[in-house]
Amino acid sequence: MEHFIFHSIIVGIFCCVAMDIWQRVLFLVFKIPPTNWSTTGRWFIMLINNKIIFNQNLDNENPVKYELQIGWIFHYWVAIVYGYTFYFLLAVDILDTSILSGLIFGLISVIVPWFFYLPATGKGLMGNKTPNPTLTKLLSTSSHIVVGIFLAIGFSFLGY
Question: How far is CA 11 from CA 17, 44, 93, 98, 131, in A?
């Protein structure tokens, strides 16, 4: 049983690194800045300290000590949760390690930022309160497709 825990952590980190590289490529090619994990850290700290899930003014809140570091840790923790989720769906034969399964998982997983994270951080459903909602939707979708595909690749590499 321990192997699935270790493998899910490793594959979760692997897919997160792939997403981070994807965002750096988008920056180099199109000058689209990568996700600011300070915002995520600030949101998480305020969630823990103030029990505020939906913070419509998060960008206007004062920075919080260690928010960037906590944001990066939270980002990788979420990827590991995706790793466990993908593993579970493999174990119950809902998914396999094909690129198609990874693509499907990635497309479904974009529900999390669209309907939870973006609204919780004041960006609206599907990022509709951002300066460029269409770009926000495309970026979150492409990033989650990368996550899903690299989850499939990671578990395939480990022999699942």
Answer: 10, 23, 18, 15, 33
Taking phi over 0 as left and psi of -120 to 50 as alpha, with beta for the rest, 159 belongs to left
CA dist., res. 144 & res. 138, Å (int): 10
57 in a structural domain: no
Number of folded domains that form the chain: 1
What is the model's pLDDT at position 26?
98
Distance (Å) of CA 13 to CA 32, 74, 132: 23, 12, 29
* Overall pTM > 0.85: yes
How far, in Å, are 27, 31, 107, 111, 137 from residue 24 at the CA level? Answer: 5, 9, 21, 23, 17
- Write the DSSP symbol of residue 113: I
Which residue bears the tokens 């995520």? 40
Residue with tokens 């192997």: 3
Q: Is 66 inside any structural domain? A: no
pLDDT score recorded for residue 1:
57
Under a CB-based contact definition with an 8 Å cutoff, are residues 42 and 64 in contact? Answer: yes
